[in-house]
Specification:
By secondary structure, this protein is mostly helical. Helices cover about 75% and strands about 0% of the residues. It comes from Rhizobium lusitanum.
C-alpha cells in the first residue's frame, strides 16, 4: 500500500468512526474513558473475541487447510491482541 493509499484509508476510517459516533446520538463518552467500567467492558470484549478467534477460527479445519485463510485469520488475531493491549495500557495505567 502506498503512502497515499494509506492516508486515504486512514481518512476513510476516521470519517466512518465519526459517522458511527454521530449515529449513536447524545451519549456521555466519559462513561467509556479509560478507568471506567465502559472501558473495561471494551477490553473484556476484545479478550473474548481474541479467545474466539484463537479457538474457533485459527483451529477450524477450513482455515487450517488454506494458507491464505490462515494468514488472514492470523492477522485478525494479531489485530485483536494489539487492540486488547492498547486498551489495557490506557485503562490500567494507574
Amino acid at each position: 500500500m502506498t503512502d497515499n493509499e494509506t492516508s486515504a484509508a486512514d481518512a476513510d476510517r476516521e470519517q466512518q468512526r465519526l459517522a458511527d459516533l454521530a449515529e449513536m446520538g447524545d451519549i456521555d463518552l466519559s462513561q467509556y474513558a479509560p478507568g471506567t467500567f465502559g472501558c473495561h467492558e471494551a477490553m473484556h470484549t476484545a479478550s473474548v473475541m481474541l479467545d474466539m478467534t484463537d479457538d474457533q477460527l485459527l483451529l477450524h479445519p477450513a482455515i487450517l487447510a488454506n494458507p491464505e485463510f490462515y494468514r488472514l485469520a492470523g492477522e485478525v488475531h494479531e489485530a485483536l491482541f494489539a487492540l486488547y493491549q492498547a486498551i489495557g495500557e490506557k485503562h490500567l495505567a494507574d
